[in-house]
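Message: Just now I want nothing more than another pair of eyes on a protein record. I am handing you a single protein, as its sequence and its fold in token form. As I understand it, each token names a local backbone shape. Take your time, and here it is.
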Amino acid sequence: MDNYCEDMKKKLIQKKEELGKVVESLLLEATDINVGELSTLDTNHLVDTAMDMLDREQITGKLESIKAMIADIDHALAKLEKKSDKFGLCERCGNVIENERLHAMPWSRYCITCKSNMDKRR
């Protein structure tokens, strides 16, 4: 494996470790939320409970995003390990992914053009 691939591999592993720490923090935050017992007579308590539920939904959304990013990182690492010649190529059009994009997000699967087109269709 050449130096470029080794550098990308290090970046990917470092990012995965960072995401692991974020997950730990989010899980701690989620378990610290105190839902308490519901009381139909205490409006403030109901509002607090609703806010806690929203916090949990936000945490769940963040965890889902992180899960997807970790899957992309694992995919990129597998490409580097098995087919380093496929790393850095857009999985949609086959063109080379822009160097700036790969340095910023080495787990990128698509070039900027394909990713933009895909995002527009959503």
